Amino acid sequence: KQEVTQIPAALSVPEGENLVLNCSFTDSAIYNLQWFRQDPGKGLTSLLLIQSSQREQTSGRLNASLDKSSGRSTLYIAASQPGDSATYLCAVRKNTGNQFYFGTGTSLTVIP
Amino acid sequence: NAGVTQTPKFRVLKTGQSMTLLCAQDMNHEYMYWYRQDPGMGLRLIHYSVGEGTTAKGEVPDGYNVSRLKKQNFLLGLESAAPSQTSVYFCAIGQGTYEQYFGPGTRLTVT
Q1: Contact (Cβ atoms closer than 8 angstroms) between residue A88 and residue A75
Q2: How many CB pairs lie under 8 A apart between chains A and B?
Q3: Is the CB of residue A107 less than 8 Å from the CB of residue A38?
Q4: Above pLDDT 70, what percent of chain B?
Q5: Distance between CA A13 and CA A23 in Å, rounded?
């Protein structure tokens, strides 16, 4: 079974700081990896999707990288803002089957 | 939430009661998923469907049934609710192996 871990569970940073969120997975035979944002009491919003053949994806102030061989992905947020405060989740899809495996998330607080 | 709606938003059930959660999409995606989210455990897949008339079990299917009679709708049923099924339920859709889009969730409490 694929295990997905996100460390730290919670992170607090001052506004304007650049930060990195981590996601690790145990089985490197993945098809893709997706990063989500979840606001309290809300559903998940897709941020970035990285296919297994890609090394990174960028969207605005967000940059996600993937190192499949080491079982790691990072989400880089540049110039953080209070509006970035949310829980960030990563999910990996294995090469076989149709199932995504989720981490438990990192709760980010950006202090004005 | 990208054309995915869930009904109802909240529900309180007594142990042993039954209910059906509805997920509807307007994006014409083939794949639909039901997840549950519990504190400290992340999202876990209950059942999924890769097309109209098909369903398959996910990681935690026990106590749930599903049906996909129409492409745009995916129903999740609880035949005899138990307190362990207290959770937030999310529906998601996807097109093949591409990204998933999530609904706003249903918060279910079983007393």
Answers
A1: yes
A2: 55
A3: no
A4: 96
A5: 19
Half-sphere exposure of B53 (CA within 13 A, CB side): 0
Q: State the Cα–Cα distance between residues A6 and A106, nearest whole angstrom.
A: 6
Beta bridge partners of A91: A34, A102
Given this model, what pLDDT does residue B2 score?
52
Contact predicate A105/A72, CB 8 Å: no
Q: Which two tokens stand for residue B38?
A: 């519990």
Say if A46 is an interface residue toward chain B (CB within 8 Å).
yes
Amino acid at site A62: L
CB contact under 8 A, A46 and B100: yes
Query: How far apart, in whole angstroms, are the C-alpha atoms of residue B101 and residue A18?
Result: 27
Q: Is B40 on the interface with A (CB under 8 A)?
A: yes
Helix (H, G, I), strand (E, B) or coil at A82: helix
Residues A32-66: b if buried by 16+ CB within 10 A, e if exposed:
bbbbbbbeeeebbebbbbbeeeeeebeeeebbbbb
Q: What are phi and psi of A61, to 5 degrees?
A: -85, 5
Among candidates B1, B97, B105 on the partner chain, residue whose Cβ is nearest the Cβ of A32: B97
Contacts B100 to A, Cβ<8 Å: 34, 46, 91, 100
| Residue B63 pLDDT class (50, 70, 90 cuts) | very high
Q: Bridge-partner residues for A67, per DSSP?
A: A72
> Which chain B residue's Cα is nearest to A49?
B99
